[in-house]
Design the sequence.
């Protein structure tokens, strides 16, 4: 039986009146969440959903959506969260790929969705009402039963579905709960969209331990988010690196009472050291964790503990040691694995995905055998230092050759972000107009650098980078274009940096 589903049932039995979920549409206790999600599961079975099916979820951040999400797993099916802001054609393409028999949504969205999708549209509220008169289905007891499938960008240009079984989900929860200090008394804030794999850590994990979970706003308004943290005395927060920086820049943290905040987990992109220090200065009892992990390995597999108050720090943080049950080694250019690297991070453990949905060729390329275990090839480059900390050094595909010099774009990015006034940087190799390449960068600025911004950045790069690694053009942006997940939209940024044909 799924440990996550079992823990929800236990919380409903032992702490029935404990608030489980605060959403924009409803507040539910653990007894109510268990009752409604069990009814939703029965309603799904009555509607024809069978164990092993993929059920799409129009993933809005509401209490009803969470009831539906849990109901899908409770019925032995796998939920497939879809971006509610994505174009209809994208949604239809994913539905076709996973052959979902139905898409779940809230009652308020059902009519609009029915006009645009080729499958049955089921309103969660209707399923709950229908399921209360039905026999509850048996809980899934196969650890390889798929819990959810999240689509990520594929190397072929087609999104690929990452299938995460209950075995991996339960191993992740078991590793992250003690490492990050989640307890039944935690008060947690969800900031991530439900179609982003990071939502597992700020949605599933709090509910797995019987904590109180508040669903954050769909639109990341810094003042509103920090208001919630302060007024609800949030103890646990997850925020990707750019969100952490946004809140540090515009949330007026120094003017808030953040004494209740105990843990912030960040990651998904390189975190700005100055933003981490802003949070540590504003919250006296806070520990920040810098996490790392591909979707294929169930959210994060490492977490670096950060407690030192170091105003003015610009040195990048490590991504930490492994979580319990995860194992990382490094594959060098000759395909030889070593415990400390440098090389490509390859990851083993129970958190590994079951595979890609109907992408056998990509699935074969994703894994490698090492030391008698199957490892996932992350495509990320790093090494382990003498203290056991793992350091991220960019992507395999972040290397370019310009005028005979091999350049790692992540190294240039780090050089730019080491300037105390730069928030985020993005570096790309673009045509130089004469048949070669040159480096161009986009930066966001934490503090105004004045009219001579470019001159100052050029001078800074001359100090921290070899001359051949210095960008030839600079683009200053208020914010980097983002994907719906919150990660930088690399395609749009590249278009901004590339010269007109």
Sequence:
């Amino acid at each position: 039986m799924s440990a996550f589903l079992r823990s929800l049932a236990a919380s409903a039995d032992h702490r029935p009146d404990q608030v489980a979920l605060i959403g924009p549409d409803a507040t539910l206790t653990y007894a109510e969440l268990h009752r409604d999600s069990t009814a939703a599961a029965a309603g799904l079975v009555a509607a024809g959903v069978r164990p092993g099916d993929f059920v799409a979820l129009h993933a809005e951040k509401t209490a009803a959506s969470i009831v539906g999400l849990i109901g899908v797993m409770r019925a032995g099916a796998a939920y497939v969260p879809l971006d509610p802001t994505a174009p209809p054609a994208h949604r239809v393409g994913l539905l076709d790929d996973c052959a979902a028999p139905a898409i779940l949504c809230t009652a308020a969205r059902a009519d609009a969705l029915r006009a645009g999708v080729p499958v049955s549209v089921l309103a969660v509220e209707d399923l709950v009402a229908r399921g209360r008169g039905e026999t509850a289905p048996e809980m899934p007891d196969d650890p390889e039963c798929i819990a959810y499938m999240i689509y990520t960008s594929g190397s072929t240009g087609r999104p690929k579905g990452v299938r995460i079984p209950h075995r991996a989900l339960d191993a992740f929860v078991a590793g992250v709960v003690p490492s990050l200090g989640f307890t039944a008394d935690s008060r947690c804030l969800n900031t991530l969209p439900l179609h982003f794999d990071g939502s597992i850590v700020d949605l599933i994990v709090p509910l797995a331990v019987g904590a109180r979970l508040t669903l954050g706003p769909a639109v990341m308004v810094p003042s509103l988010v920090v208001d919630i943290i302060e007024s609800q005395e949030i103890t646990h927060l997850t925020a990707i690196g750019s969100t952490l920086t946004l809140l540090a820049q515009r949330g007026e943290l120094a003017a808030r009472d953040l004494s209740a905040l105990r843990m912030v987990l960040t990651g998904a992109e390189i975190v700005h050291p100055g933003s981490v220090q802003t949070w540590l200065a504003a919250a006296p009892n806070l520990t920040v964790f810098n996490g790392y992990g591909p979707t294929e390995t169930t959210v994060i597999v490492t977490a670096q503990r950060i407690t030192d108050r170091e105003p003015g720090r610009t040195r990048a943080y490590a991504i930490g040691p492994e979580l319990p049950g995860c194992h990382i080694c490094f594959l060098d250019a000759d395909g030889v694995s070593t415990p400390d690297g440098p090389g490509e991070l390859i990851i083993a453990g129970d958190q590994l995905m079951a595979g890609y949905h109907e992408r056998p060729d990509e699935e074969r390329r994703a894994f490698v055998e090492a030391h008698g275990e199957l490892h996932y090839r992350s495509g990320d480059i790093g090494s382990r230092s003498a203290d056991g900390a793992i350091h991220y050094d960019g992507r395999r595909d972040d290397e370019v050759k310009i005028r005979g010099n091999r350049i790692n774009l992540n190294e240039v990015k780090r050089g730019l972000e080491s300037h105390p006034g730069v928030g985020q940087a993005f570096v790309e190799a673009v045509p130089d107009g004469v048949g070669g390449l040159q480096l161009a960068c986009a930066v966001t600025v934490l503090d105004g650098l004045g009219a001579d911004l470019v001159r100052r950045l050029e001078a800074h790069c001359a100090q921290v980078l070899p001359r051949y690694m210095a960008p030839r053009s600079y683009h200053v942006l208020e914010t980097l274009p983002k994907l719906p997940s919150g990660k930088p939209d690399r395609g749009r940024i590249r278009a901004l940096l590339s010269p007109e044909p």
Q: What stands out?
A: The chain has a mean pLDDT of 91.
